Amino acid sequence: MTATESPATESPARPRVVERGTPPPEPERSVEVAALARVQRTIGRKPVVRAARGLSLFGEHSAGWFALGLVGAAVDRGRRRDWLTGAAGVVAAHAASIAVKRVVRRQRPIDESVEVLVGTPSSLSFPSSHATSTTAAAVIYSGLTGRNLVPALVPPMLVSRLVLGVHYPSDVIAGSALGAAIGGLVRRGLRNRSRRSRAR
Fold this sequence. Notes:
It is a single chain. With 200 residues, the chain is an all-alpha fold. The protein has a single domain (28-199), classed as Vanadium-containing Chloroperoxidase, domain 2 (Orthogonal Bundle), CATH 1.10.606. It contains 7 helices and no strands. The chain has helices spanning 28-43, 46-59, 63-75, 80-104, 129-145, 150-163, 169-199. Helix 2 packs across helix 6 (150-163), helix 4 runs antiparallel to helix 5 and helix 4 (80-104) packs antiparallel against helix 7. The longest helix has 31 residues, at 169-199. The radius of gyration is 18 Å and the shape is elongated. The model is unreliable at 1-6 and 9-18 (pLDDT under 50).
């Protein structure tokens, strides 16, 4: 795909719900829009867009990550309570990101150089709730599985939000930082609870 081509589209993007919001101040906006457009030009091919849309659907309202926590609770019955706590922690991280969005009220990217390739529940952008819940899930579930899931789960979700044109780079970075903080707190709480149980 050349620099003059637009990212691959297979079907028209759904209409975005419009809410009152404000774009980032210049020159920050110009820098972020340029970076976002560059990502779309570089990797916005059909297979990548399809995968990004799949991730978007999976992560919507943290539902996919919450469901995985429920699966963990069903399979790992000895730690059922921990898995349910972890799943609740992912939902809490998502809720926290929504609360921040409604305070900051940053508008999603709107620029002729950026193509929006998926619908969104609102036009508020900062932080990315997908990035928040995904990072929280990766941190919490890493502790529960004993495997470092962060490198496999977090970068694809963060990049997918840029490919789809629905977030500025700083949105996904901030969302991931928020998710890491909340996920770390939940993971620490689970670890402390496990230690207390063993000490009895």
